[in-house]
From TrEMBL, chain A:
<feature type="domain" description="NIF system FeS cluster assembly NifU N-terminal">
    <location>
        <begin position="7"/>
        <end position="131"/>
    </location>
</feature>
<dbReference type="InterPro" id="IPR002871">
    <property type="entry name" value="NIF_FeS_clus_asmbl_NifU_N"/>
</dbReference>
<protein>
    <submittedName>
        <fullName>SUF system NifU family Fe-S cluster assembly protein</fullName>
    </submittedName>
</protein>
<dbReference type="Pfam" id="PF01592">
    <property type="entry name" value="NifU_N"/>
</dbReference>
Automatic annotation (TrEMBL), chain B:
<dbReference type="InterPro" id="IPR010970">
    <property type="entry name" value="Cys_dSase_SufS"/>
</dbReference>
<dbReference type="InterPro" id="IPR015424">
    <property type="entry name" value="PyrdxlP-dep_Trfase"/>
</dbReference>
<protein>
    <recommendedName>
        <fullName>Cysteine desulfurase</fullName>
        <ecNumber>2.8.1.7</ecNumber>
    </recommendedName>
</protein>
<dbReference type="InterPro" id="IPR015422">
    <property type="entry name" value="PyrdxlP-dep_Trfase_small"/>
</dbReference>
<keyword id="KW-0663">Pyridoxal phosphate</keyword>
<dbReference type="InterPro" id="IPR020578">
    <property type="entry name" value="Aminotrans_V_PyrdxlP_BS"/>
</dbReference>
<comment type="function">
    <text>Catalyzes the removal of elemental sulfur and selenium atoms from L-cysteine, L-cystine, L-selenocysteine, and L-selenocystine to produce L-alanine.</text>
</comment>
<dbReference type="InterPro" id="IPR000192">
    <property type="entry name" value="Aminotrans_V_dom"/>
</dbReference>
<dbReference type="Pfam" id="PF00266">
    <property type="entry name" value="Aminotran_5"/>
</dbReference>
Length: 156, 425
């Protein structure tokens, strides 16, 4: 088995020096997710900028405990989504999920998911797919929470 | 039978387990070190199930045709075999369940029935206390949390000490006149710690509490005798003792089972049914609603035969030697911390460890790439891991077919893990 397809240099770079890590103020919504099979946890805060016509991801901050794959994924996710409109972020997350559920048959579009393509090796290991997607699901849950609270702005 | 002091002939044993010849990919033989989660089955167990299905299969304890009689004989014969295996005075004390989890839930639900006709000792209510330990598998924790929630009883627990044993310093306060149940594992599925069950049972009985033993990790690995332990209930699963999945056992003292209300209700467990209500069969039938798992019971009886032919004392000695070898090798590695007592008579072969700075998922992934199959995560014992400040551990567990070479492969595999991750540091 080729481990280097799973543990790429990019994964380790993000694992060692995670981008946007730590919990910051202000935030629109906060969620806490766990992976019950392994006990991995993430607390994620989403701050939305709702001043314009399109709500935009102003900040994502998080505190993640988990394996290299899950920590790297949180770092990559935050870096990709910060600054994007909620709509763009949804398309990015959708592509990430699609690739991760393709059992390694899809390489992923680097123009859409950037460093996320370095996580695609995990798609061949169904157990590890959960590690990668935990932070992305946490983002989606935080957005839903913001919408439920009526804090997501726009037509959302 | 071979003397209990002769070492196991592991090479001969391995020939009984077809799966052990498997390669995960060409050139990567299987090194199966996850028997604590589920053990592999010998050909004899597989063949016993097949032989039953090919010759005697029918619904048991209903219908009077000859095949139904044959199937019922096989099922009840399995009950007798298992009773003998655990030293139960009567097969009527052996209840078949789906697994050990169901067996523990059976007791927890029955004790919480709220039925005023049930003797007080078998009825948990508001003001009562349920005592568990911090090392429990979720299967012997969550059912008691739920029982406490349903009844208004208070859940208390014996904490774990720094030495990976139960901290019994406050036992006299924890185990008191209000304690109705002590639910405790015989051997920790993570730490390998063996608990002083006889001593704790004496103390529990002195205050009138029942003792429910989670024996999942002891029955497959050591001589086990319910009479000698003195407990009131014991639960274990088939698939951890070289038997099938889909079957577990609840052993309980007959006079207790006879006074307990049922858990699951339906066919087979009744005495008389009218539209207004029903009365229930005597144990064990009272606790076996619906069509039971017959071929699995036959397979489990065959597993008892297999284990007894090897001898439980020899199995215990074999696994203790593997445990000492594993701990000795692993603790030499930089950054590795054994989460459990050092090798010795007070522990068995669950060897869990932490590697500083590396998540167990990552450790397990690298080991798996070399065919070494270990368990990673919290092993259904989340509070235990929290107690020792780790999110999860990597755990190796052994069985009758585990070799010294496989233990050495684990240690060499951990060297690979260290080298693999060092490249990125």
């Amino acid at each position: 088995m080729d481990l280097t397809s799973l543990y790429t240099d990019i994964v380790f770079e993000h694992d060692k020096r995670p981008l946007h890590a730590g919990l910051r103020e202000p935030f629109t919504a906060e969620v806490h997710h766990v992976n019950p099979t392994c006990g991995d946890e993430i607390t994620l805060r989403l701050h939305l900028d709702t001043a314009g016509t399109q709500p935009r991801v102003e900040d994502i901050s998080y505190d993640a405990a988990g394996c290299a794959m899950s920590r790297a994924s949180a770092s990559i996710m935050a870096d990709l989504l910060i600054g994007r409109s909620v709509e763009e972020a949804a398309a990015t997350a959708a592509h990430m999920e699609q690739v991760m559920h393709a059992r390694g048959r899809e390489a992923g579009d680097e123009d859409v998911i950037g460093d996320g393509v370095a996580l695609v090796g995990a798609a061949k290991f169904p157990n590890r797919v959960k590690c990668v997607l935990m932070s992305w699901k946490a983002y989606q849950a935080a957005l839903l929470e913001a919408r439920t609270l009526g804090l997501a702005g726009g037509a959302a | 039978m071979t003397s209990q002091s002769t070492p196991l002939d592991v090479a001969a044993i391995r020939r009984d387990f077809p799966i052990l010849d498997r390669e995960l990919e060409p050139g990567t033989p299987l090194v199966y070190l996850d028997s604590g989660a589920t053990a592999q089955r010998p050909r004899q167990v597989i063949e016993a199930e097949v032989a039953f299905l090919e010759r005697d299969n029918a619904a048991v304890k209903r219908g009077s045709h000859r095949l139904a009689e044959a199937a019922t004989d096989a099922y009840e014969g399995a009950r007798e075999r298992i009773a003998a295996f655990i030293g139960a005075p009567s097969p009527d004390e052996v209840v078949f369940t789906k697994n050990a989890t169901e067996a523990l839930n059976l007791v927890a639900h029955s004790l919480g029935s709220g039925n005023q006709a049930v003797p007080d000792a078998l009825r948990v209510g508001a003001g009562d206390e349920i005592l568990v330990t911090e090392m429990e598998h979720h299967a012997n924790l969550v059912p008691w949390q739920e029982l406490a929630r349903r009844t208004g009883a208070t859940l208390r627990w014996i904490p774990l000490g720094e030495d990976f044993h139960l901290d019994l310093s406050e036992l006299d306060a924890l185990l008191n006149a209000r304690t109705k149940v002590l639910a405790i594992s015989h051997q920790s599925n993570v730490l390998g710690t063996i608990n002083p069950i006889r001593e704790l049972t004496e103390k529990a009985h002195a205050v009138g509490a029942l003792v429910v033993l989670d024996a999942c990790q002891s029955v497959p690995h050591m001589p086990f005798d319910v009479a000698e332990l003195g407990v009131d209930f014991a639960a274990f699963s088939g698939h951890k003792m070289l038997g099938p999945t889909g079957i577990g056992v609840l052993w309980g003292r007959y006079e207790l089972l006879a006074a307990m209300p049922p858990f699951l209700t339906g066919g087979s467990m009744i005495e008389v049914v009218t539209m207004e209500g029903s009365t229930y069969a005597e144990p064990p039938a009272r606790f076996e609603a619906g069509t039971p798992m017959v071929s699995q019971a036959v397979g489990l009886a065959s597993a008892c035969d297999y284990l007894d032919a090897l001898g439980m004392e020899r199995i215990q000695a074999h696994e203790q030697a593997l445990t000492a070898r594993a701990i000795g090798g692993l603790q030499e590695l930089p950054g590795v911390r054994i989460i459990g007592p050092g090798a010795g008579a007070d522990r068995f072969g669950a060897v869990a460890f932490d590697l500083a700075g590396r998540h167990p998922h990552d450790v397990g992934q690298v080991l798996d790439s070399r065919g070494i199959e270990v368990r990673v995560g919290h092993h259904c014992a989340w509070p235990l891991h929290r107690r020792y400040g780790v999110h999860g551990t990597t755990r190796a567990t052994f069985s009758v077919y585990t070799t010294e070479e496989e233990v050495d492969a684990l240690i060499a595999g951990m060297q690979t893990v260290l080298e693999f991750f060092a490249r990125f540091d």
